[in-house]
Amino acid sequence: MTRRDLPVEPLTAAAFAAFGDVLEAEGPPDRIINAGLCGRWHDRARLDFGDGRAGLSVFDAVPRRLPLVLDLVERHPMGSQAFVPLWPAPFLVIVAPDEGGQPGRPRAFLTAPGQAVNLLRGSWHGVLTPLAAPGRFVVIDRIGPGPNLQEFVYRRPWTVRRD
Fold first, then answer.
1. Rounded to an integer, what distance in angstroms lies between the CA atom of residue 106 and that of residue 94?
2. Cβ neighbours for 82, distance < 8 A, ≥ 6 positions apart
3. In this predicted structure, what is the pLDDT of residue 151?
4. What is the average per-residue pLDDT within 23-49?
5. CA-CA distance, 163 to 157, in Å (whole number)?
6. How many whole angstroms separate alpha carbon 139 and alpha carbon 35?
7. pLDDT, tens digit, for every residue of 42-61?
8. Nearest to 163 by CA among 66, 65, 95
9. Where are the domains of the chain?
């Protein structure tokens, strides 16, 4: 089975916009609250839970190393999914455009410390991939009835590499 190389890109709001939102406190806050003691970066994610409700969970993922073999992606057709790290270590975010119900060419992004992501409803993405321990994240996603997980296995895996 032949592998294909997939370079790692830095995570920016513009590069990631088609797949979701980059959650970070960049630039001046939108509002100053709490008697001037707190900055608020307001409404930064396009959360979408369809007919479900928002659920908040804590995940503990096993750290990975690069190069990484990518052979599985998934998506959640009924709601968005946000990954918020509990430690300031970078993590890998892999996404792919939808091409007729299957994932197209994936892209791999490396977060900067302090960044989190919100994946839009139906965005193909890799599994949670911390690059350092501990791999603990708050995950905000849809809780409700119906099948909200689709998986796709690549016949020809990709190799994610940091150039």
1. 7
2. 23, 45, 47, 116, 117, 118, 119, 138, 139, 140, 141
3. 98
4. 94
5. 18
6. 30
7. 999 999 999 999 999 999 99
8. 66
9. 4-161
Contact 17, 51 (CB under 8 A): no
Question: Cα(35)–Cα(42) distance, rounded to whole angstroms?
Answer: 17
Decide: pTM greater than 0.85: yes
Pair 52, 78: CB distance under 8 Å: yes
The superfamily in CATH containing domain 4-161 is Ureidoglycolate hydrolase (2.60.120.480)
- CA–CA gap between residue 72 and residue 127 (Å, rounded): 8
Pairing status of strand 102-103 against strand 20-23? unpaired
Q: What is the 3-state secondary structure (H, E, C) of 97-142?
A: CEECCEECCCEEEECCCCCEEEECCCCEECCCEECCCCCEEEEEEE
Which whole number is the average pLDDT over 63-73? 96
Provide the residue type at 36 as one letter: G
Q: What is the pLDDT of residues 151-161, one digit of tens each?
A: 999 999 999 99
